[in-house]
Amino acid sequence: MKKKASASDKPARRDASATARGTSGAAEASSAAPTGGTAATSGSSGAPTGGTAAPTGGTAAPTAAPAAAPAAAPAAAPTGAGTPSSAAAQESTDLAPVVGANLRRLRTRRGLSLERLAQISGVSRAMLGQIELGQSAPTINVMWKIARALEVTFSALISARTQSGALVLRSADSKILTSKDRTFSSRALFPFDEPRRVEFYELRLGAGATEEADAHPPGTSENLVVTAGTLEIDVSGDTHQLETGDSILFEADTPHAYRNTGRVEAVMYLVMTYAEEIG
Question: How far apart are alpha carbons 243 and 249 in whole angstroms?
Answer without folding.
Answer: 15
